[in-house]
Amino acid sequence: MTNNKIVKYSKTKRSVYTEIIINASIEKVWSELTNFKEMPTWSRSLQKIEGDFIQNGHTEVHFMDHKGKVGVYKHQLKYFEEGTLFGWSDPFILGITDNHKYQLERISDHQTKSIQSDEVNGFATLFMGNYIMDFFLKSYTEFNETLKNRVEKTN
């Protein structure tokens, strides 16, 4: 059973929520999730993060789209808790604000819930909201599954 979903709050505000249970410690999942050097070998979306990987750090986030083109986005890490959380809330495209988080929750010493969520706001959401959120849902679900496979394979 999955709780992956898109919620439409208004014409200009939507969110996507994805989660997966990984059979590994939270420390192991965090280590793999933040191993940006190896990430391009297993992730087809998030390729790497460069810069100051700390609270309020300025970063460049490299994402690959479904056509194989890598876009680089500058983000400030507004959300950061070592070992459990990182994310940003910055303008994305056409004035849409992207509020993206990667979060880990300890279930037990050998199980971790990995949550990837996003919220978009902005006028262009009226026209592009469905397309963006469908793409995010598919991309985040795939990322979560490949992260799970990667961690459990190396566990």
Could you name the CATH class? Alpha Beta
- Coarse shape: globular
Average pLDDT level: 92
CATH homology superfamily: START domain
Briefly note the structural class of the backbone: alpha+beta
* Beta-strand content estimate: over 45%
Spell out the blueprint of helices and strands:
Layout: E1 5-10, E2 13-22, H1 26-33, E3 46-51, E4 58-64, E5 70-81, E6 85-91, E7 97-108, E8 111-121, H2 125-154
Antiparallel strand pairs: 1-2, 2-8, 3-4, 4-5, 5-6, 6-7, 7-8
Summarize the structure.
This is Polyketide cyclase / dehydrase and lipid transport. The chain is of the alpha+beta class and 155 residues long.
Description:
With 155 residues, the protein is α+β, with helices and mostly antiparallel strands. Helices cover 25% and strands 46% of the residues. The chain contains two helices and eight strands, in the order ββαββββββα. It has helices at 26-33, 125-154, and strands at residues 5-10, 13-22, 46-51, 58-64, 70-81, 85-91, 97-108, 111-121. Strands 1-2-8-7-6-5-4-3 form an eight-stranded antiparallel sheet, covered by helices on one side. This is Polyketide cyclase / dehydrase and lipid transport. It comes from Flavobacterium segetis.
